């Protein structure tokens, strides 16, 4: 796999600029380049070339210091990122340095970031689910916030388009509330997962347990192979970068596809400070960057701009793009920019031990777990009196390994024999619930505090409310009930609320809507008031649903790129 093109042209002028090269920026780059636009991608972080820069992908615990744990010195730099539980010697370099990227919390907000080429597409959990039509209708039905300007049929072909390219392993089940996709063969459940699925489906009328639908190649189709991607080896080390390109990331998939067109240029270490407006036409004419290493300020120009810096970073830069025409931030005529910040709420569920299946085991470490689609507030029969919207669970089942969770010390044949025997089976499920789009949940820019590059710091003031707290009670009670009814013992429940952001599904702050008076973007992710700027990351979301959101960002990005290029051809932009 060749390296990405980093050679800039002489004029700093391109057809399109894409800000950010993560999940959504990668898709914008691929689509715009494939449609013939000379495209410059600007990313704040360092270059990460596919495979050659995955420095820990083949390392084992004994190959690194401190058995893979992070030193206190390193931890000082990533105290916020460590709230995620994902920081280890193998992953830490794909998470941001909190000292260099500070922010302010009026209420706790867990902002987990990946500042590098590829963004968090390198570290994501790969769970990929479609939204159903009812999810797009939800705000309208409940008369809260504003209505989505699109419905399922608008995005359905783009879901298929994205799924086919990225490769999603999944099983078709025909659920109306969790539409099937264009799937590769599913990852297989282990024996306890199969048994749990059978028990739950027998004991409850409308609850189903399926294998998580994940962007891992259970089979590599010709279009995957053409990009050098091969089938997954079940190592479950995806967050380090995959030597087989077997999970979807920008670095393994969209950026190489863009690079292959000859239309692609990427400039890492380029922190976009603001979008430059041509005040006479009220169109964006380019962007102003700060070189992260030299601190030099440089301008780049283009006909269209895709802002894909991730939910909060995108709105930070739009709020920082002030001009006479847009004194409150670019495209912020509605005053909604920064508001309606959402995430999912999680860390509530239960774990149980299963006695039996002692003669069964499994092979490999599959990179996915269980998924229980939502089952409450789907209709009148499942309507809840204490909360609106719904939740789903993710889970997994394992057999305790030879360590049994303790560091046993001993000698002799019996001790060694005992170590060879696997322990008991356990299964855990954790809920992910919808967070409503509250206007008062917001991010703003601090009037004085700046980061080391002179960019105003983000201030978060957002939290969960009664609807989320009530929903959590049911999430916990149902988790216990499902394990009990399926024959588990020693069931331990947990409910550890976090700050907003901890699910790493931050959404909103530049929502889509039909009316420019109450929303920032139109139905094609185009700024209502600056029509050659498109925002296609999670900032655009009008509500949050309860499923992992990145598939929807990717589908919306591909759809918006298609629209932008056709408008450009019609000379409408
Ligand atoms: C551990 C983990 C597990 C996850 N699991 C899942 C999952 O199972 N399913 C799911 O759907 N989602 C999951 N997510 C969330 C998913 O990673 C994000 O939703 C997705 O990456 C967002 O895509 P994005 O393009 O908006 O942002 P990112 O992928 O974060 O990319 C943003 C890019 O913009 C760059 N950038 C930021 N600011 C600037 C600037 N000012 N100028 C230039 N560039 C800038 C960054 O360097 C970065 O490369 C997970 C995330 C993590 C970390
Ligand atoms: S589990 Fe599969 S996708 Fe993940 S790193 Fe291993 S081979 Fe790659």
Share in β-strands:
15-25%
Rg, alpha carbons: 24 Å
DSSP helix count? 11
Helix/strand order, N-terminal first: EHEHEHHHEHHEEEEHEEEEHEEEHEEH
What is the number of E strands? Answer: 17
Query: Overall pLDDT, averaged?
Result: 96
Class by SSE composition: alpha/beta
Overall, the morphology is globular
Largest β sheet strand count, sense and barrel closure: 7 strands, mixed
Terminal CA distance: 35 Å
Weakly predicted, low-confidence segments: none
Bound molecules: flavin-adenine dinucleotide, iron/sulfur cluster
Percent helix among the residues?
10-25%
Description:
The protein starts with 12 loop residues before the first strand and ends with a helix. Helix 1 runs parallel beside helix 11 and helix 4 (152-166) crosses helix 11 (550-569). With 573 residues, the protein is an alpha/beta fold. Helices cover 22% and strands 18% of the residues. 51% of the residues are buried. The longest helix is centred in the last third of the chain and has 20 residues, at 466-485. It contains 11 helices and 17 strands. The protein has helices at 23-34, 72-77, 133-142, 152-166, 191-203, 222-225, 250-260, 311-319, 413-420, 466-485, 550-569; strands spanning 13-19, 39-42, 104-105, 210-211, 264-267, 270-278, 283-291, 297-307, 344-345, 348-354, 370-372, 391-399, 425-434, 442-450, 456-461, 489-495, 533-535. The protein is globular, with a radius of gyration of 24 Å. Bound molecules: flavin-adenine dinucleotide and iron/sulfur cluster (SF4). Iron/sulfur cluster binds next to loops.
């Amino acid at each position: 796999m060749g390296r990405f093109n980093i050679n800039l042209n002489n004029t700093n002028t391109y057809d399109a600029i894409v800000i950010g090269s993560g999940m959504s920026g990668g898709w914008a780059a691929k689509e715009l380049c494939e449609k013939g636009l000379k495209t410059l991608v600007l990313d704040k972080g360092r270059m990460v070339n596919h495979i050659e820069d995955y420095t820990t992908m083949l390392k084992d615990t004994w190959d690194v210091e401190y058995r893979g744990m992070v030193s206190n010195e390193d931890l000082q730099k990533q105290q916020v990122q460590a709230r995620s539980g994902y920081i280890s010697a193998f992953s830490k370099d794909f998470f941001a340095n909190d000292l260099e990227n500070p922010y302010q919390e009026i209420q706790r907000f867990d902002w987990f970031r990946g500042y590098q080429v590829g963004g968090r597409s390198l570290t994501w959990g790969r769970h990929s689910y479609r939204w159903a039509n009812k999810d797009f209708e939800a705000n309208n039905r409940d008369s809260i916030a504003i209505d989505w300007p699109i419905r399922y049929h608008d995005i359905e072909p783009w879901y298929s388009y994205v799924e086919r390219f990225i490769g999603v392993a999944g099983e078709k089940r025909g659920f109306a509330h969790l539409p099937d996709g264009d799937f590769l063969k599913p990852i297989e459940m282990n024996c306890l997962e199969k048994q749990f699925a059978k028990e739950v489906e027998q004991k409850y009328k409308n609850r189903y347990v399926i294998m998580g639908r994940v962007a891992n190649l259970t089979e590599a189709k010709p279009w995957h192979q053409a990009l050098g991607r091969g089938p997954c080896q079940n190592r479950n080390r995806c967050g380090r970068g995959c030597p087989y390109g077997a999970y979807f990331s920008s670095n393994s998939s969209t950026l190489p596809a863009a690079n292959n067109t000859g239309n692609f240029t990427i400039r890492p270490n380029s922190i976009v400070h603001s979008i430059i407006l041509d005040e006479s036409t009220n169109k964006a004419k380019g962007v102003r960057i700060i070189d992260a290493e030299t601190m030099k300020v440089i301008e780049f120009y283009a006909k269209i701009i895709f802002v894909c810096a991730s939910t909060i970073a995108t709105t930070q830069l739009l709020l920082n793009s002030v001009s006479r025409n847009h004194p409150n931030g670019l495209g912020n005529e509605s005053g909604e920019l920064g508001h309606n910040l959402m995430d999912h709420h999680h860390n509530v569920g239960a774990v149980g031990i299963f006695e039996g299946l002692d003669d069964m085991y499994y092979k490999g470490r599959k990179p996915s777990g269980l998924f229980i689609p939502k089952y409450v507030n789907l209709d009148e029969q499942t309507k809840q009196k204490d909360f609106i919207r719904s939740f789903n669970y993710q889970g997994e089942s394992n057999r305790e390994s030879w360590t049994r969770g303790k560091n046993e010390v001993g000698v002799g044949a019996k001790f060694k024999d005992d170590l060879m025997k696997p322990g008991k089976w356990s299964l855990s499920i954790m809920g992910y619930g919808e967070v409503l789009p509250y206007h008062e949940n917001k991010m703003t820019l601090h009037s004085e505090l700046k980061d080391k590059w002179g960019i105003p710091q983000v201030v978060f003031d957002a939290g969960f409310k009664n609807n989320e707290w009530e929903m959590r009670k049911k999430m916990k009670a149902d988790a216990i009930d499902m394990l009990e009814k399926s024959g588990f013992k020693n069931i331990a429940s947990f409910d550890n609320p976090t700050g907003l952001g901890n699910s790493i599904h931050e959404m909103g702050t530049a929502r889509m809507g039909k009316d420019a008076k109450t929303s920032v973007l139109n139905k094609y992710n185009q700024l209502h008031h600056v029509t050659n700027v498109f925002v296609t990351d999670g900032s655009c979301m009008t509500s949050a649903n309860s499923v992992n959101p990145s598939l929807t960002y990717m589908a919306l990005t591909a759809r918006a790129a298609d629209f932008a290029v056709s408008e450009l051809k019609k000379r409408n932009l």
